[in-house]
Amino acid sequence: MKWILLLLLTSSPLLNLFANEPDSAYIFAYSTGKQDNKAGLHFAWSRDQKTWHAIGPEFAFVKSDYGVWGAEKRMFSPVLTFGADGYWHALWSVNDQDPTFAYAKSPDLVRWIPQEYPILHHRDNCTEVEIQGDGTGKQYILSWIGNHTGSEKFFSTSTTDFKHYTPVKKADEGIRINQRTQANIANRTETGTIHKVSWKLIEGLIKHVQVSKYRNAQHAELMRDDPTRFRDLHQLEANITVQANESKAISDKLIGIFFEDINYAADGGIYAELVQNRGFEYQPTDRKNDPNWHSKTAWKTTNSDVSFAIETASPIHENNKHYAVLTVNKVGAGLQNEGFDGISLKANAKYDFSVFAKTIDGKDGRLKIRLLDEHGTIYGETTTGALTENWKKHEAVLVSKGDVSNGRLEIIPQAEGKIALDMVSLFPQETFNGRKNGLRRDLAQVLADIKPRFVRFPGGCVAHGQGIENIYHWKNTIGPLEARKPQRNLWGYHQSMGLGYYEYFQFCADIGAAPMPIVAAGVPCQNSEKCDHPIGGQQGGIPLEDMGAYIQDILDLIEWANGDPKTNKWAKMRADAGHPEPFNLKYIGVGNEDLISEVFIERFQMIFDAIKEKYPDIVVIGTSGPWSEGSDYERGWEVATELGVPMIDEHYYQTPGWYIHNQDFYDRYDRSKAKVYVGEYAAHLPNRATNMETALTEALHLINIERNADVVSMTSYAPLLAKEKRTQWSPDLIYFNNDEIKPTVGYYVQKLFGVHAGNEYFANHIELNHTDEAVRKRVACSVVKDEESGDIIIRLANLLPVGVSSKVTLDGLLTETAKATKMVLSGQPDADKAQPATAEITVEKDWAYEIPPYSFSVIRVSNPK
C-alpha cells in the first residue's frame, strides 16, 4: 500500500512543485449549512480572491463535537485567525440557545487540538462569534451577538490562552469588525473568512484530502466485491515457516469481555430478576419524559375490584421512594406484573418470591402469589405470612408445573382494605453458580465459555453518564437491594442496580477473571444533553470543590475490593455481603472515550495522582477518545505519556476494509510508552450485520494484535449482549431473548482466541505464490504457546474466495508426529449462522494443511515434542 500511496501523492498534477507556483495564496474558511449544519469546516483556495477552488470539495477538516448525537454536533459561522503562537484558532457557534461557543486550534489546519466549550456565566446565546488581536499578540478579544431573549445584544470577553476568559461584559456594536465576507464557491455564495497563507499550507490541505480519499476507498472494500476483485484468482500455495528461535513473551490477559448495560443487558437480561419495575421506580425522565414510562409500567390490576396508586410518604428506604398502594374492595382481585417481554418459566423449576409489604388500615391479610401463563392458567401458587402495620419482607418459593414463555406474576391480597407493596421479586433458584441475587445461568455461562481473562464493567457510556448527575456511583449499587439507588440509564431505560458492584466482582471471581471497574474521570459523556446545566457535553465537569469527595469515593472502591474487613468499613461491607476474602482488584479504568479537553485533563490528573500515591500497585487505565486517530486520540496519548499512565484504553469501530489495510497498526507503537487496552472494537458493515465477513476481519485483527501482544495487553469486543426487540446498538456479540441464547459468528472467534490462548509468541513468515498485495493481505498466521499446558496453538486466517494449499514448517517446535485438535470456522461472507467444526488430526514438523476459502482455523497441538 505504501508505494501505491507514494505514487499517488507524487504523480498528482495538483501536488507537483512547479517553478511557477506562487509562494502564497488565499484560503477561504467556511461551513455550508448542509447536513443540518453538521458538515464541518471547509476550505477553498484562490490566487486572486476572485476565482475559488474548493478543496475536497466540501471536505470536513474539523467537525463540531458539541452536544448530543443526532440533534446537535452542529457548526455555525466559523471564524479563523492565525496567532503569534503559531496556531490557527477557530471559533464557531454551536446552536442558537446555549451560552457558549466552540474553540479548537491547529498548527496546519489538518491536525486539530481537542475542542473546548467555555462556560461564560452569562444568560444569552453566542452567535456570530468574532475574534481579533489586541495589537500586542498576547491577547485575543472575542465578541458575539446574543439574541436569545429576542433583541440583539453585543457581548465580549478576552483571553490569552483560550483556557481562561475575563468576565463577559456587554459591549457596543462598535466592537464588531465584520470579520466574515462572501465568496462564490462552486456557483454557490458562501460566508467565511479569508486568509493569506503559504502555498505549502494549501498543498498540505490538498494532500490530506487525497490521502483521506485513498484510505477511505480502501476501508470501503467489502467481500461482496470479491468475485470481481479476485475473478482471475485460483488455488494458492503458501510456505509458512514458524521461527522457533524468534519468540517473545506476550500478555496472558489478551481476551476479555466488556459488559455494559445497553440493549437491556442487565435488567431483563443477565440479571436474573424476572419482575420488571419491581421497585415502582420507573420515571418518565428515564426515557426523555415519555409519559407512558412511569411507576406503574409493567403492572396492571386484574379487575375493577382493586385500585392501584403510587405513594412516597413512608418508603422502605429513602433511595427507593415509590411504592404501590392497593385498595381492595373484594377479595380475588389482584396486581399482575408482565415481566420483561413476559416471564419465562421452566417445568419443575423453583422460584424465590419476595416482597416488602404492610397493611395500611390495620387488617392482617395474607398475599396469594401465582405464576400464570398469558391466558391466565395457573402454573404455580403459594401464600405469604400475615401482613403487619410495618414494612416487612415476606418470602416464599413457587414451583412451575410446566414451561411458559410469556408468563405473569400475580399478587392477590386475601383481605379487603389498603396494603402497600414494594420491591416485588421473582428469582429463579438456578442462577449461575447458584448465587443469590445472581445471574441468568445460560447467559452467564456463554460468557464464561469464552474464558475471559478480565471483565470490564459497568460501561462504557453508562459509567460516565448522561450529565454530571447521571455519573455512575459504585456506592449506590452495593448493600441491601432496597437501599440501592436506581437511576436513569442513558441508553433510554432504567437501572435498578440489582446488578451492582458486588455482583460484578463476584462474577469475576466465579469465572477466574480479573475485575476492571470503570469510573468517570470527573466528567460526563461529551455527548450529554444540558440536563439543567448551562451547557451540554462535559458540562464543565464535576466542580473542582467537589472533586475531593469524588476522588475519595474511588479510593474507597479500592478499599472495598481489596481491604481488610477488620480495619476498613468498606471492606467490612464486602465481607458482610458474603466475600471476606479480597477481590484482588488490580486494574481500574478512569474515563471512557472522553473528549480530551482541559476540563477532562485537569480532573483525570487529580484522580490518577491520588490513586498512584496511595495505591501504586493499581494499574490505572487512561483513555484516548472514541477513535483510532484524530485530536482526542493524539492528545490522549500525549497526556498519558506526560503523566506516565501505564495503560491506555483505545476504542474504534471500523469497516472490514480498515482491518485488512491496517494490519501494521500496532507494529509501529513505541514499546517504551503505555501498554494498550483495546476496550471496544468491532467490524461494522454498512448494514451493521454480523456474519462471516465481520468475524473473519475481527479474527485477522486479533492475529495482528497477538503479534503485538507485548504492547497490547488486553482486548474486548463491544457491545457484548443485546436482547432481541430491545436493541439500541448493532452489531453485538450475543443476542438473546427470554428463552434462547444466540451467539453470533463473531462470538466463536472470541471463544477460539479465549479458550486457546498463549503467553509466548513465535514469529512466522508466509511465502505466497502470488505478488498481488490485495491477495497477500488476506492470508495471515499466528503461532503461540501455552506454557501451562505446553500446547502450541496455530491460527490461520484466509479471507479469500479460494483455498490455500499450505506447508507449515514447525522446525524447533516439533520433532515428531503429535496429536492436535483442528477447529475451523468457515462459510460464505454473508453466512450468519456458522459455527466451528472440530476434528482430531496429527501434525508433523513439515505439515501440509489446506486452508479453506473464507475461513479461520485454530489447530491446537497437544504438548508437542
Automatic annotation (TrEMBL):
Protein name: non-reducing end alpha-L-arabinofuranosidase
E.C. numbers: 3.2.1.55
Gene Ontology annotations of biological process type: L-arabinose metabolic process
Origin: domain of life: Bacteria
Keywords, sorted A to Z: Hydrolase, Signal
InterPro entries: Alpha-L-AF_C, ASD1_cat, BT_3657-like_N, CenC_carb-bd, Galactose-bd-like_sf, GH, Glyco_hydro_beta-prop_sf, Glycosyl_Hydrolase_51
An example Gene Ontology molecular-function term: alpha-L-arabinofuranosidase activity
Leader peptide range in chain numbering: 1-19
Alpha-L-arabinofuranosidase C-terminal domain sequence ranges: 679-855
Pfam families found in the cross-reference section: Alpha-L-AF_C, ASD1_dom, BT_3657-like_N, CBM_4_9
SUPFAM superfamilies: (Trans)glycosidases, Arabinanase/levansucrase/invertase, Galactose-binding domain-like
